[in-house]
Specification:
Number of helices: 27
Strand order of the largest sheet: 6-5-7-9-8
Largest sheet: 5 strands, mixed
Shape: globular
Distance between the termini: 72 Å
Radius of gyration: 26 Å
Strand content: 5-15%
Helix content: 55-70%
Number of strands: 9
Length: 660
Amino acid sequence: MRAFVERRALPALLVACALLYLPRAGSYGLWDPWETHYGEIARQMAMRGDVITLWWPGSPADRPEVFHKPVLHFWLMAASMRLAGLESRHARPSELVDSNRVEWAERVPNILLSIAALAVLWWAVARLTSRRTAWLTALVLATSSQWILITRQAMTDLPFVAPMTIALACAAVALLAPDEELAPSPRSRRLALAGLLALTVPQLVLFSIQLRCAVRLGARVWHAPGVVAMLPYLAALPLAVWWCARARTRRQLHLHLAWVGCALATLAKGPAGLALPALTIALYLVLSGRAREIVTRLELPRGLLLFVVVAFPWYHCMHIRHGAAFWRELIGDNYINRATGRSGDRGTFEYYVPWLVYGTFPWSGFAILGVLRAVGDPRRALAAFALVWAAVDVATVTLVTTKFHHYLLPSLPAFAILAALTLDDWLDGKLQPAVVALVVVPIVAFCGRELAALPARLLWLFCYDYVIAPGVGRPWPSPAIYGHRFEFGPSIAGFAVAALAIAVAAALVARRWPRARRCVLAAAAALALAWSVWLVDDFLVALSPHWSQKAVIATYYRLRRGPEEPLIAWNLYWRGENLYTRNEISSAPDPMERTEWSYIDVNKRLHEYLPRHPGRRLFFLVDRTQLGGFRAALGPALAATMKTVDDSNCKLFLVTVDNP
């Protein structure tokens, strides 16, 4: 890729993104429930050395194997944990609360994926339009609220969205760039083939070693090593390398990379990793009158071979190990049941409109204006491609009955492209002042007002525990208890006023004063960068003690005399209690000695547990709303010994009880 060997632009982008995302990324605790849930699965992988089956043995209600998520994110986090020196043979029980290594290990892979997606998107837009538009695209996406927040969260969504973004960016270049029929450079060929080998060979080697399979011949069953099941892929890989090395044009090479990106997205989230990009590309070609190219120009034979070699081996291993149970949960529960409504919110198209505005703040006005202008401007192929990209993703999540705000994440790169194209035209004086005044200014004003009025909306862009009804769900830290240091409304209002002033200035200089437009854009970029830094290095860090259990569990390990003083999770299932204790609460061989008390009759379990452990001090993690019920379950005598030893978390208390 020509732009990737340029010596200034791409390194500058990589450094800028690293400076934006990396500082303080591991300096605050992992947030419940997703970061800690996925972190425990990755820790189990690092501890067990099993790269095939995902494990969650601390679940009080489900099987210990995890079937609802594919493996890519957990490979990355487990490898990162081992590189950070975690989960060695002699790991301390308090290892995960004694330092920030686990936070860095979990979050850095997603940050690197985010930077990679931004770099490839920059390259694609630069190839298709101009370097200026490419920089604007990277700026808008890198500083959009939802993108930067999820970049700093160890969630499975970015390992799904980043490869998919890379795939669509490569496909856009392959289909839209005028010079794609030229021969690729030898360097590009070598890099692509090296990447393919790096993605496939370790998988096949490890699966061959760790998998055991059974071959049935009539009434007899022959047990065979995993290499037998991997033979088709071991045979297909040299064919894929040889066949793809014969690619004669850049278009072919870029489409091969797109197929590999789809394969990685499928390893991260399942069939949607292929379905969403395929639907986007096919629909764009149909609408642009190029439907025949679906068969003739998308490299279907070689692409499918690449997809199979990269994505199929792990699924094949899971089928051999776990059979239909794996597919029932991955497809039946995680896809079909969510499509028909298993959890989350409900709504239709209007559900996502305000969250798109919040998620793209402070660029919300130009993102929406970009959509409106793309509809009436079919001359720009990239605008049309981005519009189809955004429409497919938004339509898909609208049709799915289960609604989560972060389902919009796959569409954000497309909205960033549309916003950048609009900003580019504005810089050239091609926008009417009235258009900017009537679209951009009101949207920025609305978004700023709503976020300042309820800062929790920013958390709801990525966090599972959002409940709009007041007083329900995870509470906001109360000023009556914690003072006003968590009242972020004035700070957000300050950013909102600045963004509104910039939007008004953009309207005033829309058709005149080119130098003034550049100054306004510089002010907008400075505001976006300041907003992003504040969001992830102040806002998230300040709130983390209330959305993470790290500080509370660190208090437990600091105060306990030894494992004979256990931590009991009282009717609690927030996952942090499993990760930060290294699953100590659920690892006892005797189920009656496990102290993860959830989805059971906790009062009965308490009265069974206490007589078996006399003369001990017991630590309990208790939801603040359940403290009264917990006290009543203890009875007057034990309740008199209860002491609150950590009340720093707005959701939980850490209390001790002296068991006579």
